[in-house]
Model the fold of this input.
Amino acid sequence: MANDSAPESLEPPAVDDAAAAAAPAPAATPAGQEFRAPTGTRDVLAPESARWTDLVATFARSMRLAGYGLVVSPMFEDVGVFARGVGTSTDVVRKEMYDFLDKGGRHVALRPEGTASVVRAFVQHRPATPFKAWYVAPNFRYERPQAGRYRQHHQLGAEALGSADPDIDVELIALVAGFYRDIGLRRVALLVNSLGDAACRPAYSDALRAYLLARREQLCTEHQTGELENPLRVLDCKREQCRAATADAPLLDEYLCVECRAHFARVTDGLDALGITWKRERRLVRGLDYYTRTTFEFAAQALESAQNAVGGGGRYDGLAQALGGVGFGTGIERVLLALDAEGIAASAGSGVEVFVVDTVDGTHARALTAELRAAGLATDRAFDGRSMKSQMKAADRSGARVAVVVGSREVELGVVAVKPLRGGDGAGQSEVARADLVVHVAGLIERLGN
Ligand code: HAM
Done:
């Protein structure tokens, strides 16, 4: 599938030195200035990052079980990939895209979402269909930062391209629902809708546009003056004026063609057959223009309604050139917020299990950590020739359940001291022959349990 010889259209355009020269030179760093993560972004450090690792591992496992392969695509693309893919009437493209001219004068954009890139890769490489792919990737949107809304967020997502079969829609929805179940999220509601297709949606768009034009002055300022190029955007507007003005707006449901109705019925029948609870949300249009037919969103009931969408997706048959595609994305940050709101703690066992304290010269710690790690035990040690007291403090801070202590006495006797740090109801320190250390520590950790 990999394509070594780039097609003609992907040759880089001629480098525009003038554009590169016009870019301001990076400012020198004032001495002593402390930089902070840019507005709307955050650093994720351990132990919080261990929860990310857990989420990604759980997701990766469920994707493998369902026959989806990882796809890694560039973090930036030609701006047209998103402008054309996501749609020029969307906030994502109109207001939020990080787009710029690179040093060669190419107009590129940081990825605001994952689907358009996967579709571009699909069209470029033409893999066998259905092409089932998953990803974990950062996305960039210049939004107003607030709790659960960042300028760089991270999504776990999946796409299935090259099939119009409604059973694939069901498969993907079931995968998200299963993922939430696996990570312990309980209070999520699945909302589903059908957005029709190129055959039936135009008539609906016309009817909705006419309805909105008749009430133009009641809409929010943005929609009063805008083009109403895609009137469905007004249904997605969160402002009170638009909400009130569209309360009795015509619904797409009444315009769905026979084929779209049948497709949607098969999706909802499939959800029922798999025991997945869903609710029809007739106003669900989602914020990206590419959707056709099935659309869905998972709302975390424990979160504030403005940021309660933990995941969403749908079908986009126009985007993948008559072949059809469907997918979803779920935000890692939002999922973690929802887990917190439900009081679900991180899974245990993400830190180290053993901490080696060497008060001789560090060479014993060097050898023992290598041995313990090779046996599959997560092990850390202190550096810089710290005192016994300081190393024991570090051992405690590390979260390890067992400390392995080596001093000159132990070296002389060819033993090591093994000290349980947590669990085990006060089990005391023991001394074991150095050669038996790994087996002894592994057994002890098992006995100490979780
Ligand atoms: P989306 O609804 O724009 O869809 O984003 C998917 C999820 O990413 C949201 O439900 C939310 O959890 C998270 N998310 C979005 N924006 C932010 C933000 N600014 N800060 C934090 N989390 C955020 C898509 O992006 C589509 N590509 C999904 C899809 C895949 N549709 C078909 N295939």
